[in-house]
Specification:
Length: 103
């Protein structure tokens, strides 16, 4: 399949991407990602490996479009558990409760 990444044309195949990513250890996923084989990689890492370009030269969207057209599963963001953040009211009551214990 012919695609353009960072203004350069590439002829990519699913088997070619699988071969390129074989033996590559996935980096920490902090944003968009793609599942290749049984591993999940950040899209910028995949783009760098398959195009041999600097990560600043292309967008994650370009890589996601190409990987989706090749049949890979892409993910918008990592599966992360949200960290609970106390509301201002909860924070204020916690402060008042601590002040009452000190005094």
């Amino acid at each position: 399949m012919r695609c353009v990444i960072a203004r350069y044309p590439f002829d990519l195949t699913k088997s070619g991407v699988l071969a390129s990513m074989k033996g590559i250890t996935p980096e920490l996923i902090t944003g968009e990602s793609v599942t290749i084989g049984r591993r999940r990689y950040p899209v910028k890492q995949v783009g760098q490996v398959i195009t041999r370009q600097d990560r600043r030269d292309f967008t994650g969207g370009e890589v996601i479009r190409a990987m989706t057209r090749l049949g890979f599963t892409c993910h918008a963001h990592p599966d992360a558990t949200p960290v609970p953040v106390p509301s201002p009211l909860q924070s204020a009551s916690a402060l008042l409760g601590a002040a009452a214990l000190d005094g």
